[in-house]
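I am still getting used to backbone structure tokens and would like to learn alongside you. To get us started, please write out a protein record for me. Start from the sequence, derive the backbone structure tokens from it, and show both lines together. Once you have written the record down, we can walk along the chain together:
***
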Amino acid sequence: MAENQENERSRLFTLDENLRTEGQSVLERSGIGEIINEAGFHPVGSFVMKTMTWRDMDFERYDENPDWLEHWELGRRLAENTWVWSLHCNDSYRDPRTPGDYGYYWGLRVSNPNTGGNTFWKIDLWTARKEEFEKSSPNRDIWNSLMNEEKRYIILSIKDALWTHPQYRQTLLSVHIYEAVLENGIKNTDEFCDWWKSGYGKQTG
């Protein structure tokens, strides 16, 4: 049992490391990294917390006066990149489906230059005021301070088990996993599912 757990730990840590390395290479070789760095974006989420289990990177930038035209110009630059084959735009300030949400969003699908486009990455870019990000992710600093290698392993194992779940990214979110493990002491996927169903699952059921 101990050997199996150690092998699984090694597999998940290696998966995360390989994905972060691949993601960084995609940003550099595609030229997208240069565009978003110039625009003032910084990485957040699993890329920073070393909890990656799939090809998905998140970036944010602070703007005290978010400008729609500037946001659209950023999209034009990204659309001209030959490795970008899908762009999704959203204005959460005006979206009637999500009252109280904030920010301008670009969602990209990017072919991996290292594989000739045989694999692709999802890249999310959010622009909002700093205080708006703080309202939407109030526990981020707490989670960073509570993270250790054991909790990172638990988070990786839960994400790896659930990333194909039909509710994942719909009503079951990665932030729920961070909250469960880092704030509530959840230690495995079964415990997480019970915890989620008793809370967030009820809210969406």
Q: What stands out?
A: The longest strand covers residues 120-128. The domain at 2-132 is CATH 3.30.460.10 (Beta Polymerase; domain 2). The CA atoms of residues 37 and 61 lie 10 Å apart. The chain has two domains: 2-132, 140-200.
